[in-house]
Amino acid sequence: MDWTGGWYAGARRLPSPNFDERPPGTAVDLVVVHNISLPPHRFGGGFVAEFFLNRLDCAAHPFFTTLQGVRVSSHFYVERDGGLTQFVSCDARAWHAGQSRWRGRERCNDFSVGIELEGSDLLPFRDAQYAALGALLAALRARYPAVAVTGHAHIAPGRKTDPGPFFDWARVPGGRAPA
């Protein structure tokens, strides 16, 4: 069994306090792909995990002062080497999409799973990340058969740009390529 109470067995588990319950009766039918790096365009260091766990030392880098008091999370985080961490049960609502709209429905956090890829809009993603993302999507589709895949930019146009111009949608079965 790949799942236990919304937790995926193939991921390292680091529970974030930044989540709440989905609205009653809401089905998960969307995956939102993001990119993230802290500080921007720099990888490694564990800062993303610390941010999602509300433990980021905002004095550790000048950029981090802009994140003081910000409370966000994602269900999953895929590192550059393909390492996979889960922060929020897929049965709960992670705080990843913000103000958003998909197929006429507002508040995408209510019905989506968020996957953050360690990256930026300036660099290509790595093969190991696409492999980890593909395996995770297969597991999610086994649990949520109707799940579609799109980017943060597609549900929050004008506000967000991720996963960015270097994300190869052709490597994501069933993904939504940019228009």
Task: Pick out its properties.
12 strands, two-stranded antiparallel sheet, six-stranded mixed β-sheet, globular, 179 residues, 22% strand, Lysozyme-like, single chain, 3 helices, alpha/beta
Mean pLDDT: 95
Characterize the main sheet.
6 strands, mixed
Strand order of the largest sheet: 3-7-6-11-5-12
Report strand %.
15-25%
User: Rounded to an integer, what's the Rg over CA atoms?
Assistant: 15 Å
Report a brief summary of the structure.
The chain is α/β, with parallel strands linked by helices.
Overall description:
It is a single chain. By secondary structure, the chain is α/β, with parallel strands linked by helices. The protein has one domain: Lysozyme-like (3-Layer(aba) Sandwich), CATH 3.40.80.10. The protein is built from three helices and twelve strands. It has helices spanning 47-52, 127-143, 152-155, and strands at 3-4, 7-8, 12-13, 19-21, 30-36, 76-78, 84-86, 92-94, 101-102, 105-106, 112-118, 148-151. The protein has a six-stranded mixed beta sheet. A hairpin with a 2-residue loop joins strand 9 and strand 10 (105-106). The protein is globular and about 40 Å long. The model has no long low-confidence stretch (mean pLDDT 95).
Fold blueprint:
Elements: E1 3-4, E2 7-8, E3 12-13, E4 19-21, E5 30-36, H1 47-52, E6 76-78, E7 84-86, E8 92-94, E9 101-102, E10 105-106, E11 112-118, H2 127-143, E12 148-151, H3 152-155
Parallel strand pairs: 3-7, 5-11, 5-12, 6-11
Antiparallel strand pairs: 1-2, 4-8, 6-7, 9-10
